[in-house]
Specification:
This protein is 31% helix and 19% strand. The protein is an alpha/beta fold. Strand 2 and strand 3 form a beta hairpin.
């Protein structure tokens, strides 16, 4: 169906069953690149014409970055973005925004997205998969790639949240307390510490020639409420990154990429 970003995009609802808050869905957004008559007749020779990109947003966020999609489609790639369960387009009335108790639960969201992408895959040679994650999306995709080796040709991390921004002593002291609270009262809220600087910075660098009307119900000026169960899931993800045998390079480099990307 048409997407909120306009004529360049479409969205598909991916049913994921239900939980104690009701229906659970993810939403796959697809960019619609222009295809010239020449490319339809003689093929697309652009560098990334054999590549699919799946973008996953970060905490308190959703996909709205049209310029990001155009960057990839201009190079021939098929671009998709996933609003995870209880985020953005996937948030349903009565649900706790962004709440998850185990990041591995997102495996179902990603699997549904990849199945939908494959169903729309053009005939011909196998295609490469590039995973692109921002913040907690980078954490989620890093862990997914480790659990599913060989599925992705590359993982691109944009400001990935792979470690809590505290000293090691503080992290190791905090983690068991958060874990205990998550077991007893997972929906307890942490104090709000976001003063809105990030949102103001993003507004300052927005493209005035291509404005985006951000939905503040999906991406509030201050972050959504942080619950104990969610924070425990993130800290567990950080621990998995720290101790698992995952080769992580700097942002914009690949994780376990068997097929190098063309320049």
């Amino acid at each position: 169906m048409p997407d909120v970003l306009g004529d360049e995009f479409e969205q598909l609802t991916l049913p994921l069953g239900s939980d104690d808050e009701g229906e659970v869905v993810a939403t796959l957004v697809r960019a619609l690149p222009e295809r010239t008559v020449w490319r339809r007749l003689f093929g697309d020779g652009r560098a990334l014409a054999d590549t699919d990109v799946l973008y996953v947003h970060g905490w308190s966020d959703y996909f709205f970055q049209k310029r990001l999609a155009r960057f990839w489609t201009a190079r021939g790639a098929r671009f998709f973005a996933l609003d995870l369960r209880k985020y953005g387009r996937s948030l349903r009335p009565g649900q706790t925004p962004g709440f998850i108790s185990d990041l591995a639960e997102y495996d179902a969201d990603i699997a549904a997205a990849l199945a939908a992408m494959q169903a729309e895959q053009p005939r011909g040679a196998p295609r490469r998969l590039v995973l692109l994650g921002h913040s907690t999306g980078g954490l989620t995709l890093s862990l997914w790639a480790a659990r599913n080796p060989g599925m992705a040709s590359a993982v691109i991390l944009n400001s990935p949240w792979l470690e809590f921004q505290l000293s090691r002593f503080t992290r190791e002291t905090l983690a068991p307390l958060v874990s205990l609270q998550a077991k007893r009262r997972p929906l307890d809220r942490a104090p709000q510490v976001d003063l809105g600087f990030y949102t103001r910075a993003q507004n300052a660098v927005a493209d005035p020639d291509d404005p985006v009307d951000v939905n503040l119900a999906w991406r509030p000026e201050q972050t959504m409420a942080v619950h104990a169960g969610w924070l425990n899931a993130v800290l567990a993800g950080h621990a998995a990154v720290a101790f698992a045998r995952i080769t992580i390079f700097s942002p914009l480099h690949a994780i376990d990429a068997p097929t190098p990307l063309k320049s």
